[in-house]
């Protein structure tokens, strides 16, 4: 690269070339100077001054190299946007095109994580190392680290599409730490005795919703989005196609995955809960379950916990678990009863049963002493038939 690898070299009898990095691009520019030892030293000093200006954010390409073809590309107007400004603009544009729950997740990551840490950095100056060094300081799980990077990577992809930056510094790269020893999973289902105690502590709409949740495995967000038109009384099924979170502010949204849109078979306890609920909301032909205090659709998980769930746990004397445990309770009940894992997976809205086996494996009935006997019997029958046929051929 010339002059001992210092980024300065003679390229002709009347010019010297200097090489430096700017906005992730290796730049080479010529200075009209005879390449004497003194001038080469001056070129090194000039290069050092340029790199210092770049490091403090004061470098103006068009001023330093007004005749360079790169000057227009690196015009100051294109580099004045900070990470703060870009992410704020990006977030506002995203709100129209993504689900409310996804947007709320992005908003929290941008406002609480990314802008405080990286907001002052110029968009074009963001480097992977700066992101890695910052992430290394966070005392969060690998899942949270992944969520932060996913949000930033998506934003930088859009910046690349807008030609604000040449390359996404996070493309093809993910930062993570050595995984900590796995914690006990969150699966903590209610026993039959606990279920009865909680149901006895509830009445009316609250009891109906609790019983329906325990015997369908619906997520809370799916439960509150349910309308009477989703019930197929002849087939005894419920069509799950929408979810409503607090972030959606009262607006039901389609489920995030195709597997999430599903028909759930209604077992007898679930049908009984629906029939009991008809006297409360059926004639309005809208939401199935309402907040008994307001007679409006539940707004999400938060109000359910505060006004119905926590008081019921205390009254029943049952150890507190979050409402999502009704879903885990349903899965564990079905598997303990010997229902096929693939059927349970479809009921819950999963594409396959690998997650079911991983999370709920201990509730699957273990093999008994007779396991494998059916297969062995078929083998013995086939073997006997082949042996018989061979003997008949030998005697013919």
Molecular structure report:
This protein folds into three domains: 8-78, no CATH class; 83-161; 192-363, Intergrase catalytic core (hpI Integrase, Chain A, Orthogonal Bundle). Helix content is 49%, strand content 10%. It has helices spanning 37-56, 61-64, 70-73, 83-94, 100-118, 128-135, 142-161, 192-201, 204-214, 220-224, 268-281, 301-316, 325-336, 341-348, 354-360, 373-395; strands spanning 8-12, 15-22, 25-31, 231-232, 237-240, 242-243, 253-254, 262-265, 290-291, 296-297. The strands form four sheets. The chain has a three-stranded antiparallel β-sheet, with helices on one face. It has a three-stranded antiparallel β-sheet with strand order 4-5-8. A hairpin with a 4-residue loop joins strand 9 and strand 10 (296-297). The longest helix is centred in the C-terminal third of the chain and has 23 residues, at 373-395. It starts with 7 loop residues before the first strand and ends with a helix. The mean pLDDT is 85. Residues 371-396 are annotated as: Disordered.
